[in-house]
Design a protein that fits this description.
Layout (H helix, E strand, L loop, with lengths): L22 E4 L5 H9 L3 E4 L7 E4 L3 E4 L9 H7 L3 E4 L3 H8 L12 H12 L3 E8 L2 E11 L2 E9 L4 H13 L8 E5 L3 H4 L4 E4 H11 L15
Parallel strand pairs: 8-9
Antiparallel strand pairs: 1-3, 2-3, 4-9, 4-10, 5-6, 6-7, 7-8
Length: 229
């Protein structure tokens, strides 16, 4: 089970004070208690400018979520699922390093401070990786934060075709249990690529309402609740 860290000394603005902007706050730190408090309030961190500038805390006005019963499985993706083995938390640091690889052109925001913060959350049982393996080799995966019924996806990568998509399929399978209707798979922002997999946008207020309900649920078994099935 996850270990609850000391509470954060920082106070984030309440949702009623948020402006009509994705960026809600600047500053604070990336301590485990701060990160968990942020996710529980509907926020996530991301650098906003140059290295050394204050951390940005975001809650998109239009939030990208993947309804668990809305995942789009093409015929080719179904075939690809047979080519990979799904594992959980066997290579967390390798996954986050692959997501941060500058050659991808997408993970530049995962700097040393962000990496260290999520490796720390993983050690406490809050951050998890879902990995796709092929012939004993890590082919793709994703990582994020699991709190109750929330999985807040942070980043994904692939080395083989469809490997990251198969990891997402694996994540949906892991979250599809007796509490699936209340679980919340957050992907931050909708992109054309994610939309092709079934991701939709919901208004911020809708997201926050669903988040409050999701946080009351137990973790899926794969992420630390031995009694969940």
């Amino acid at each position: 089970m996850p270990f609850e860290p000391p509470p954060t000394p920082w106070v984030f603005p309440e949702p009623g004070l948020w402006e009509d902007d994705d960026l809600v706050a600047l500053g604070a730190d990336l301590a485990p208690g701060t990160l968990l408090a942020a996710y529980r309030q509907g926020l996530f961190p991301m650098p906003v400018a140059m290295r050394g500038d204050p951390m940005g805390w975001f809650s998109p006005v239009d939030r990208g979520v993947l309804p668990l019963d809305h995942l789009r499985m093409t015929r080719s993706l179904r075939r690809s699922c047979r080519d990979f083995e799904i594992r959980v938390d066997t290579a967390f640091e390798e996954v986050i390093d692959a997501c941060a690889d500058p050659a991808r052109g997408e993970g530049g925001w995962i700097d040393d401070a962000v990496r260290s913060a999520y490796v720390g959350l993983h050690a406490l049982g809050w951050a998890h990786s879902v990995e796709t393996w092929r012939d004993g080799r890590l082919a793709g995966g994703l990582y994020g934060v699991a709190i109750g019924g929330l999985f807040a996806g942070e980043s994904m990568f692939h080395r083989d075709r469809d490997a990251s998509k198969v990891a997402l399929v694996g994540l949906v399978d892991l979250m599809t249990d007796g509490h699936a209707s209340g679980r919340l798979l957050d992907v931050q922002w909708r992109t054309d690529h994610l939309a092709s997999l079934g991701v939709v946008e919901v208004p911020r207020e809708t997201y926050l309402t669903r988040l409050r309900r999701a946080l009351e649920l137990p973790l899926p078994q794969a992420f630390g609740d031995p009694g969940e099935s």
